[in-house]
Amino acid sequence: MRPLRSSRAAVLHGDHRMTRLRTGLNVHTSDTVTLQDIATTIEQPPGLTIMIFLDGGVDATIGGVPLNVGRHEDEPVRGVMMSRTRPDRFVRHARKGDRLRKVIVTMSPQWLAESGIDDIAGCETVRAFCNTHLARFDWVASPAMIAIAEQMLHPPHDGSYPESLYLESRALDLVAEAFAALASEGREALRTELSPVEQRRLQAIKDMLADPEADGLSLEQVARQCGVSVSKMQRLFRLAHGGTVSEYVRSTRLVRARQLLEREGITVAEAAHGAGYSSPANFATAFKRMFGISPREARRSARA
């Protein structure tokens, strides 16, 4: 294990690699712990990205859309594939102590054009996905895919063949599984708008979530009372708001807390309790991450 250093101090501890396998085909692997709070902003070029998070997640946006990717304890490992048809801004915030184990494969449009997509099953779906800006597809990773990601994190060093060749073979296996999953699950990932029926269903769910009597209900209970599955409910919120149901609830509560702090001057502890936080410190961290100011600064505006 080794630290990755910036011009001032180490920011990561562990194994962090970015490898160019071929022109247009790159792999980024990370098995690290963040040593300090960091913020990263880059412009991502057009292309396709496949992400496998074995542990941990990232707080990031691309083109202003929350990525909401990662894995937490007891959750299945998921694959995430995103397409970019034009350059777009990527912003990431990492906190000290974050543990992250991930494998990311990126492909340029030229590499994709030369890779023989037209010869695979479901090629029309894959091609349409690649041609849709910020199209996103999530699926539960197979045991084989998880094993491949683990192998890419820690490739063998026995000298039997070049590491880059080993990584390339593993990366191609990941790409093949991602394309196969996308082709089998159809065009759901390409939709960017809700149908009228889905809009009404989404509003019914939001109305229930806004009811104080819904506090304490599980996602399964909310979905059951609204007549949808949890996965369908999550898809509705991702399409409409770019995030999960929990993230929508958290953000709306933080917005309400800010309104009460600024307009009515309630205490920070009261705002934290109303937003569902047992710890004012955790509330303050989430509040500042969302709005760029602390709850105390927001409250001062009520007295100004």
Automatic annotation (TrEMBL):
A GO MF term: sequence-specific DNA binding
HTH araC/xylS-type domain sequence ranges: 199-301
Source domain of life: Bacteria
InterPro entries recorded: Homeodomain-like_sf, HTH_AraC, HTH_AraC-typ_CS, PchR_regulatory_protein, Tscrpt_reg_AraC-type_HTH
Entry coiled-coil feature ranges: none
PANTHER family: REGULATORY PROTEIN PCHR
Name of the protein in its database record: Helix-turn-helix domain-containing protein
